[in-house]
Amino acid sequence: MLELTAAALLLGMALVLIRAIRGPSVFERILAANSFNTKTLLLIAVIGFLSESPTDYLDISLMYAIIGFIGTVAVLRCVEYGGFLDRDDPDTEREEVQ
Amino acid sequence: MSVMMDVVSGILLFSGAFFMLVGTIGILRFPDAMAQIHAAGITDTLGVALIVLGLMVQAGFTLLTIKLLVILAVLLFTNPTASHALSRSIAHYNARSAREGHNKELEFGVTNNVWPLIRESGDQSQGNTE
């Protein structure tokens, strides 16, 4: 059953890559990249359960989840504001430096 | 008992993979970015939850279950947040394009970064300007 899940996840990753390459706008590519991130971390967790020590693979999965989310939001901010720092965001409240 | 745990885990894994595949086919078939978020955001999160639950049933009452629970909690919080941020950005882009006209460079992903989207034209800021 685990091998079947891993094969289905691989197929899903290939299909999402098609949308990432073909998508005519940048928003579709961001969405496809986020979905690819999620499927990758699931694939790593399932392969970890197929091996001897699943603990290491689950740690990698957890890091991938967090970094994937941060990457998606960072790219989105870069598309919206021109940069992902705080000074590029016109909504941040600046503190007056005395 | 162990056979029943395997059967339950198999059912959960199978349905999780099925939802993932259906969502991916939806991403390929829908015409617009805003419509693809419907397919990607919902089925992605549900498929992840089901697969992680299936792995938890297979792990038993060890430390692996708690780690999988942490992964599930992180994904249940961050996937809808990313979908919301993306759809909000698309809505802002559509609203501004209706007012000013479409920015073809940005829409087709050319990385020239010449048109900051949301900032109004009177903003004084340090980022890239035209």
Question: How would you summarize what this structure contains?
Answer:
Chain A is mainly alpha-helical and 98 residues long.
Helices, strands, pairings?
The complex is a heterodimer of chains A (98) and B (130).
Chain A lengths: L1 H21 L3 H25 L3 H28 L17
Helix pairs in contact in A: 1-2, 2-3
Chain B lengths: L1 H28 L3 H27 L3 H38 L3 H4 L23
Written overview of the protein:
- The complex is a heterodimer of chains A (98) and B (130).
- With 98 residues, chain A is mostly helical.
- Chain A has helices spanning 2-22, 26-50, 54-81.
- Chain A has one domain (2-88).
- Chain A is flat, with a radius of gyration of 18 Å.
- Chain B has 130 residues and is an all-alpha fold.
- Chain B has one domain.
- In chain B, α1 (2-29) packs antiparallel against α2 (33-59) and α2 (33-59) runs antiparallel to α3.
- The chains are: A mainly alpha (98), B mainly alpha (130).
- The interface between A and B is large, with 53 and 61 residues.
Number of H- or I-type helical stretches of chain A: 3
Tally of separate domains of chain B: 1
Would you list the SSEs of chain B in sequence order as H and E?
Answer: HHHH
Instruction: Tell me what portion of residues of chain A adopts beta-strand conformation.
Output: under 5%
> Given the helix and strand composition of chain A, which structural class is it?
mainly alpha
* H-E order of chain A: HHH
Q: How much strand content do the residues of chain B show?
A: under 5%
Query: What Rg of chain A, in angstroms, do the CA atoms define?
Result: 18 Å
Tally of discrete structural domains of chain A: 1
Task: Note the gap between the termini of chain A.
Answer: 63 Å
